[in-house]
Amino acid sequence: MKVAVVDINGKETGRKVELSDAVFAIEPNEHSVYLDVKQYLANQRQGTHKAKERAEITGSTRKIKKQKGTGTARAGSIKSPVFRGGGRIFGPRPRNYGFKLNKNVKRLARKSALTLKANEKAITVIEDFNFDAPKTKDFINVLASLGLENKKSLFVLGDSNNNVYLSSRNLKRSEVVTSSELSTYKIVNANSVVLFESSVEGIESNLSK
After folding, report:
1. What is the C-alpha separation between 6 and 129, in angstroms, rounded?
2. CATH of the domain at 110
3. Structure confidence at residue 185 (pLDDT)
4. Which intervals of the chain form a coiled coil (predicted)?
């Protein structure tokens, strides 16, 4: 699959890049995409939630009323979950929400996500560029040239580029990653994926193993 390369102003340069069918034109496996996104979101959870159960509540241990003759249910402790201020029944405890996912499944998920974006014509290849200094206004101009100012966009660099990364950091709808940091969630979450020309080789190399 050939895609035209555009410049920083959104105009075609006259060159085209060949995107590998083994990465950008496979039969999408949506279940693998679901699993990879689920794992990514699960790993974002801190899992530090904690509620006190009755053994951890501070309170008197005396029997609060006699066993019989009150006409109400038996009660032996003020820390019982049935009373206000008592312990919580089966409350949340600290835990790790992460789960294992096979590397081949994760690789298939990323290729499926890229294929789906390619099918939607949501992948753009731009020639490599850099800024003289980190400046958000310069990055906004690039977004405007590509028609992405009001869309979620994901820019994929071939190598780390500090000026481009810092220029995008204040923009909520745009994210800049390197080809090695590319994840299924970030691909799916973006309306448009913009690949730096130098990133194509790295993506295909990582996903063709």
Report:
1. 11
2. 3.40.1370.10
3. 97
4. none
- Report, as an integer, the average pLDDT of 150-166: 94
- The residue assigned the tokens 């019989």 is 68
Q: How many domains does the chain have?
A: 2
Q: Residue 170 pLDDT > 70, yes or no? A: yes
* DSSP conformation letters of 83-127: STTSPPTT------------HHHHHHHHHHHHHHHHHTT-EEEE-
CA-based nearest residue to 21, from 127, 104, 118, 109: 118
Q: How far are the Cα atoms of 41, 56, 88, 102, 104 from residue 109, in angstroms, in the given order?
A: 15, 44, 40, 11, 8
How far apart (Å, rounded) are the C-alpha atoms in residues 175 and 6?
19
Q: End-to-end CA distance of the chain, in Å? A: 20
